[in-house]
Amino acid sequence: GGLNRENLLNIQIPLPSLDIQQKIVSEIEVLEAKEKEAKEEVEKQKEKIEPVYELVGGLSIPKINKQIKLYEKAIEPYISMGAGYEIPDRIMGKDNVVLAGHDSPELFENLVQLEMGDKMFVLENNQVFIFEVNSIFKAEEDNVHDLKQIRENQKEPMLTVYTCFGGQNTPIRTVVQGVLKEEVSIEHSDKRIQQLFTTEHY
Predict the structure, then answer these.
(1) Are the beta carbons of 103 and 163 closer than 8 angstroms?
(2) pTM of the model
């Protein structure tokens, strides 16, 4: 009586029949295949997810009373929320940095009101870059001598800001350019300059 080694060794554990064993194996294989498929789908979807571009600074244009957020790249949805860098490897204060954004009321709708001599202020990495407008013109989006030249050929310390002219489906762009006049740190800048930017920009 009772449990002992001999009794335990004599206990027979019933195994399912071969048919049932094969059915279990088949079901496991189906589940493994579904898991593999799900993992592949997750990887595929990951590739489709757009990278998130960071807020990198601010653009202030006092003449039209605008403070505009600057994002790393000039693509949607960022050019609807602010302006983006058209050529990301350009360096502010050294190259012609090109910013683009929509002509909505919150952004660049009134860009056409700028005049020669007006100031544009860019805050980036706690530095304020002060540009003076020296060129205002309209350009064809596809014209190689207009915007393509602006984007690719000019390599001097300046700022180019452009937006749609007359609605988002038009090929015409309003282009405003300014030459760099001064660069100061935000901490050591004039209070009036500091007030051009909200804390979310730096």
Answers:
(1) yes
(2) 0.70
